[in-house]
Amino acid sequence: MSRFFSKKYQNLKAYTPGEQPRDMQYIKLNTNESPYPPSPSVLDAVAEEAGKLALYSDPECTELVREASKLFGVKPTEILMTNGSDEILNFAFMAFCDKEHPIVFPDITYGFYPVFAELNGIPYEKIPLKEDFSIDANDYIGIGKNIVIANPNAPTGLTLTLEEIEKIVASNPENIVIIDEAYVDFGAQSAVCLTKKYENLLVTQTFSKSRSMAGARLGFGIGTASLIADMQTIKYSTNPYNVNRMTMAAGAAALRENAYYMDNCKKIVKTREYTKRALEKMGFSVTDSKANFLFAKSEAVNGETLYTELKKRGVLVRHFSAERICEYNRITVGTQEQMEVFLAKTEEILSEMQ
Ligand code: PMP
Hints:
Layout: E1 27-29, H1 40-50, H2 62-72, E2 79-82, H3 84-96, E3 103-106, H4 112-119, E4 124-127, E5 146-150, H5 162-170, E6 177-180, E7 201-206, E8 219-222, H6 225-236, H7 245-256, H8 258-281, E9 285-286, E10 293-297, H9 303-312, E11 315-317, E12 329-332, H10 336-353
Parallel strand pairs: 1-11, 3-4, 3-5, 5-6, 6-7
Antiparallel strand pairs: 2-8, 7-8, 9-10, 10-12
Helix pairs in contact: 1-7, 2-7, 3-4, 3-6, 8-10
C-alpha cells in the first residue's frame, strides 16, 4: 500500500476472483463459465463492430435494450445494461444504500456483496443460512433493511420460490430488495414479473453464465423506470460508455438467438443431474443445486485436499476457506466429457485415500 492510498480504503478487503492459471491446460470447473461457445451470429456481430472501434459505443445501448425488453416483456426504460452484473450490483449499492440504509444478505453467498458494502461505506449484516444451507425467507420478512439475495444462491445452488421472494419484497416496502439472478436460467423461477408490481424490487442478470459471454462482460438490471433512472445517474457519473461496442453487438445477437442458449442450459442441467448422481454414488453429499454448478463434500476427503489433488490432475474446482463451507467444493458443470474426466479423477483420489 502506498502512503497515498485514501484512508477510507485502507481496510478494504478486495474480492478474490477464481484463479485463472496459465501453467497448463486445465479442465476449468471453477468460475461457472459456460462450456459452450457463443452462437455464430455473436461472433459475426463482434467482427463487424471491431471495425468501428474508433467510435464510442452507444451510451444508451439502444439496440441491446430493445432486444432485452422484447425478451423479458418490460419497457426499455425498465432496463439498465452494465459491464457484467457486478457493475449493476455496485450501482445498486451506490444508489440505494448508505449509513441510514444498511443492507443484509446471507452469511454464505456471493463474496462480492460485503466488498461492495465496504467499498461504499455501507453497514451490512449477514444472516445465517439454515443448517441445510437453505435461506429461511422468514428471516427477511419485514426486516426493514435493504436486502440482496442471489437466487439461486451461490455457492449452494439452492433457490427460493417466487412466493417466498414476493413475501420478502412485499413486507419491506420502504427498502430495496435486489434479487441477483446470475444463475436463474438453470432452474430457478425469475422474479422479473414482480418488478411490475413492486417499486422496491431490482432483479439483476448476467450474460456470463447461460449466454456464454463471461469474457465480454455484460449484465443488466430490471426494475421500475424510476429505480433504473437512479442507477443511470450513477452510471453517467462514473462511466457513460460502460458497455463496449463489441459486447453490445454480441449481447443483442445472443438475445435474438435465445433458443440456442436455452438449449445449452438444458444440456447443462442434464449433465448437472448426471454428475450429482455419480457423486452421490461415491458417497458425496451434494446440495440440490438449480445452478450451473454443484456444491459437494465427502467424508472420505477434506475439501481442500480434494481441490488440490484435482488441480494436480488438471481439473480446477473452487474451494472456499470460510469455516461453514470449507469441507465443500463448488464444481462448475462443464460438458458431459469434462464431467466424466472430473468424476474419474475424483474416484482415483478417493481410492488413493483409503
Ligand atoms: N452474482 C453472482 C451470484 C455470481 O456468482 C456472479 C459471478 N461471479 C456475479 C453475480 C457476477 O457475474 P458477472 O459480473 O460476470 O455478470
